[in-house]
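Narrative of accomplishments. A recurring question from our advisory board has been how the design workflow behaves on a single, concrete structure rather than in aggregate. To address it, we present the structure tokens for one chain from the evaluation set, followed by the sequence designed for it. No filtering or post-editing was applied between the two.
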């Protein structure tokens, strides 16, 4: 379980319209451990020290309210795809941030290993 702290979002440039709602990019900090776990544990192979980030996309689930300060969250993730290319492997990882056991945000990240 992770909790969103006010210090995570009170930096200059991170203000949001609602004093309790948090910016989307904080989701990366919340799910980072869940994102990297399948890269290490799944046996994908490759040198993780040469890992290159390609992209992130975020999608709120239907009827989910935005993440807020003091929300208690849980994360899970899985490898959704591995595509072998001449320059390395493209690995797509999908993570889900849950609040009270219900999905709130799906995050899809693509890496080159």
């Amino acid at each position: 379980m992770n909790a969103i702290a006010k210090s995570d979002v009170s930096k200059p440039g991170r203000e949001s319209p609602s004093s309790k709602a948090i910016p989307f990019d904080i989701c990366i900090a919340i799910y980072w451990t869940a994102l990297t776990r399948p890269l290490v544990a799944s046996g994908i192979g490759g040198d993780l020290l040469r890992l290159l980030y390609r992209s992130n996309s975020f999608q709120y689930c239907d009827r989910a309210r935005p993440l807020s300060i003091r929300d208690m969250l849980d994360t899970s993730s899985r490898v959704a795809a591995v595509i072998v290319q001449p320059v390395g492997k493209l690995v797509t990882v999908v993570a889900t941030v849950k609040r009270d056991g219900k999905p709130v945000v799906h995050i899809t990240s693509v890496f080159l290993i």
